[in-house]
Design brief:
alpha+beta, Jelly Rolls, 11 helices, 21% strand, globular, oxidoreductase
Length: 370
């Protein structure tokens, strides 16, 4: 079993594409500019530029997060080992109970999701916060020696990167800088999701059936999503002009987007942008597997996803959700509902010539894009 750095094969970055594509123009958040013992000091120009970007685009880059290139590459190496160094038998034994409980913790095998009758070619190994207290139950033996290292990385994402972003967003909503952090910092109610993902190239026939879409267009379910940038051009975002554009690789940067939970509590002011994964437009990158390292940050389990009454920005939207007589769900209830339903070809209303599908989940309309 691996026990030290040299035991886990080093992941080598795939070649970066030198071709130009229709890339999204995204704002960059310099996280080093957020300071103070509780990250309460945020320059006004940061609040303005990032607030505008996340209300308009829902996606930004983040740099100067405090992690070195080596620390990030190490996580990609562990991600690679989580798939290549663990037997198929153990992946099955430690399978996530996605449909049973709405929890991604464990391995998601290829083929769990379907799009146009084609099963996906994506593997996940996902960890909710509770996984680190139940190590023997969650981690296959090959990964147990790495748990402390993975947990430390998770903790940094939550306590520093996520917290800084929440300070910015609290000020965007004209709330005290610690307001949103107080909705996410109860240790006993944490259920953030950390994920290693591996996208295997589908066959040309399967790619043709889905028009090159490998992960259906969707909004994330959580509060804030952190993606560690990697070289394969494949992620697309649906920009405000309703055009799909690629996200450019920025070495060592984070790609950050907001999810449903943040959208709901902001009264719709902050945008949960639709995004998807497609076949790389650069033919030289098509044969490569695409490795991903993600951190899906959440509010506390019991946080109600209702518009924040204390915010004048939220009040100005005049928007409400779940207004059919039901109480707004908690962050945990919404997450479970979406996890169970996603990619299962449920009861959907096809619109826009088949390019979009509507689905009712928990009393709220969810739109999927193919």
């Amino acid at each position: 079993m691996p026990g030290k750095l040299s035991d886990v094969p080093r992941w080598e970055y795939p070649p970066t594409s030198n071709k130009e594509f229709d890339y999204a123009t995204l704002e960059t958040l310099d996280l080093s500019r957020i300071t103070g013992d509780e990250y309460e000091i945020v320059p006004e120009d940061v609040v303005k530029s990032i607030g505008d970007a996340l209300a308009r685009d829902g996606f930004i880059y983040a740099t100067n997060h405090g992690l070195s290139s080596e620390q990030i590459q190490r996580q990609f190496s562990i991600a690679q080992f989580a798939f290549d160094g663990v037997s198929e038998e153990d992946k099955s034994k430690y399978r996530a109970k996605i449909l049973e409980t709405g929890d991604f913790t464990g391995y998601k095998p290829r083929g769990h999701w379907k799009l146009k009758g084609v099963r996906d070619q994506i593997e996940h190994f996902s960890l909710q916060s509770h996984a680190f207290q139940n190590r023997e139950e969650i981690f296959p033996p090959a990964l147990l020696p790495l748990v402390d290292e993975i947990e430390e990385f998770n903790r940094y994402n939550h306590d520093h990167i996520f917290r800084k972003i929440l300070s910015v967003l609290s000020l965007v909503l004209k709330l005290p800088s610690n307001y949103l952090w107080n909705l996410a910092s109860k240790e006993e109610e944490r259920f953030d999701l950390f994920r290693y993902a591996l996208y295997h190239p589908p066959s040309p026939e399967e790619d043709a059936k889905t028009d090159g879409v490998r992960l259906q267009g969707h909004t994330d379910f959580n509060a804030v999503s952190l993606l560690y940038s990697q070289p394969i051009v494949s992620l697309q975002v649906l920009m405000p002009d309703n055009v799909w554009r690629y996200v450019r690789h920025v070495p060592d940067a984070l790609v950050i987007n907001l999810g449903d939970a943040m959208h709901f509590i902001s009264g719709g002011y902050l945008k949960p942008t639709i995004h998807r994964v497609v076949s790389p437009p650069d033919p030289d990158q098509v044969p490569y597997r695409r490795l991903g390292v993600f951190y899906f940050a959440q509010f506390n389990r019991s946080t109600r996803l209702a518009p924040i009454k204390d915010s004048p920005v939220v009040a100005s939207t005049g928007k409400t959700f779940f207004d059919d007589g039901r109480k707004s769900p908690t962050a945990w209830e919404w997450e479970c509902s979406r996890v169970k339903a996603y990619g299962q070809d449920g009861q959907k209303k096809v619109i826009d010539g088949g390019h979009e599908e509507e689905e009712m989940i928990g009393g709220e309309k969810v739109v999927h894009y193919n």
